[in-house]
Amino acid sequence: MIIMPTVQAEVLDDLEFSGFARIVAGYIDDEHAEFNGYENKVSLNQQSLIGLQVDYQIIDNLSATAQVIGRTGDDNDSGIEWLYLTYAPTKALRLKLGRQRTPVFSYSDFSDVGFAYNWVSLPQQVYQQFLFPNFDGLHANYEHIGENVSLSVEAYFGEIDRKYMFQGDSLNVNVDNIHGIVSTLGYESWTLRASYHRGDVDVTQQELSDFSDILRGVGFTQSADSLTNVGEAEFYQLSAFYEDLDYFFRSEVTRLRTELFLAPDSNGYFVSGGLNFSPFSIYASVSRDTNKYSASVSEIPIGANAQLDQLAFGYQEIVSLIGSNSTVSYSIGGRWDYRDNLAFKAQATLLKERDGYHGLFTYRDQTFDGKAMFYQLALEWVF
Amino acid sequence: MKILLIIVGFISLSGSICFANNAITVVANTQDRGMLLSRHEVRNLFMGTRLGYNFIAITLPPENQTRVIFNTKVIGLTESRIQSYWAQMRFTGRKKIPREVASEQLMLEYLQNNKGAVGYLPASLTLPDDLTVIYTIL
């Protein structure tokens, strides 16, 4: 019997290099506001990135993986995204130990791999809640395939100790005891996913902690406590996806509860549907959220003396930067799979603050009406 | 009349060839000659899930016509979506893309030479005795 040399070469190949890249151009059709670094001129350097991965099969059921990502954008967090060992003691069970992406929502562990989904940008109202992209720890996945139904259960625990950039600010994030459980059910063309995640969070934003320490030092404990970024965070997620040769439907509902000043309690969802006519697909999506920040306190007397006035003013200034809000976005878009590993995408989104305080736009002038069209083009490549 | 019969015979013959050409069998190198899988199990096997058996899925290249038919009838996804899925699986370390062989002939050879190997082939292809059909879709 003949075995082709190519097949033998593949068998012998224990070391694999692969990667992904995306070039994303975006433009806000409104000169009065900015959104996620995009403004009223075309920008290529907000979401464009390149990722490189190396996998090494150590022995039959043990492998090592490293993935680094180089990013553009204001919140540039380039570096090691994944660095882990995979051990598969049985066919149904797989364990991963090391640095990994947190599988909070359906797309959160591969949000950088644009080739793997249809949107140019994942629905903002759900995926902005995603606070902690990576953890260091253990992830276990058990899968059962029945005759007609498949079930996967994932559980993980670990910790996060990392510096992140968020809207231009440097944040030291420390999460002890982050853990979660994810169950996924597959039936015919449906995939249903439900998950729960929690962690004990300690976020340090230097100016904010310094100010909070001053307040505490002079006895305004309630004011200091109201600016705390130490506490519990909990995420809940439910999603239902349907996909066949002609149609697809995806919906996800998320809920975040935190005790942190910087992170609001959020509820979000998206609903998206589309048509496949390979190699093209088109879709329409709606995504909505409500964000509720913890209430500020009025503890510092005003008018007593200049120093107290300064403290009271400082406190009001800080709490004025945040506020409860509700936002919505409507998107239409398309994707063209030009090659098996190369796709082009386009998306037009109406971003709208529904009511309440600033919800979406990072900069605005006085005349801004709280809504703007956002246009994006992307090239997605895997190699 | 004879000509008409020949024409009818030719049409029905070409029809049956066409029919046979679109039928797919999933073939395994296994000792268990009576084994049969469901469509759900076959789909999951080729989407990277390891079933409770010692099976390893082998596929044909994306442009291959047998693969196109298999995608349509068994996987139920377009090739574009399948490629997206593998990008997701690879870069999240979840599942491994099946090994690919270049043609049906090489598939047959690979299956015969590797215990546990499972691949899909046109149902019209004559199989050697040592391989087992574990799933058929017309």
Task: Describe this protein's structure.
Chain A: This is Porin domain-containing protein. Chain B: Keywords: Signal. The complex is a heterodimer of chains A (383) and B (138). Chain A is built from five helices and 18 strands. The longest helix of chain A is centred in the C-terminal third of the chain and has 14 residues. Chain A is globular and about 75 Å long. Chain B has a single domain, classed as Periplasmic binding protein-like II (D-Maltodextrin-Binding Protein, domain 2, 3-Layer(aba) Sandwich), CATH 3.40.190.10. Chain B contains five helices and five strands. A five-stranded mixed β-sheet of chain B has the order 3-2-4-1-5, with helices on both faces. Chain B starts with a helix and ends with a strand. About 12% of the residues of chain B have low confidence. Chains A and B meet through helix 1, strand 5, strand 6 and strand 7 of A and helix 2, helix 4 and helix 5 of B.
Could you tell me the number of beta strands of chain B? Answer: 5
Enumerate the spans of chain A where pLDDT stays under 50 for 5 or more consecutive residues: 1-12
- Arithmetic mean of pLDDT of chain A: 90
Question: Strand pairing plus helix content of chain A: what structural class?
Answer: mainly beta
What coarse outline of chain A follows from CA principal-axis ratios? globular
Strand order of the largest sheet of chain B: 3-2-4-1-5
Total domain units of chain B? 1
The H-and-E topology of chain A, N to C, reads as HEEEEEEHEEEEHHEEEEHEEEE
Radius of gyration of chain B: 17 Å
**Class of chain B in CATH?**
Alpha Beta
Shape of chain B: globular
N- to C-terminal distance of chain A: 33 Å
Report the CATH architecture of chain B.
3-Layer(aba) Sandwich
Largest sheet of chain A: 16 strands, antiparallel, barrel
Proportion of residues in helical segments of chain A? 10-25%
Give the proportion of residues in helices of chain B. 40-55%
Beta content of chain A: over 45%
Q: N-to-C terminal Cα separation of chain B, in Å?
A: 33 Å
* Helix and strand sequence of chain B: HEHEHHEHEE
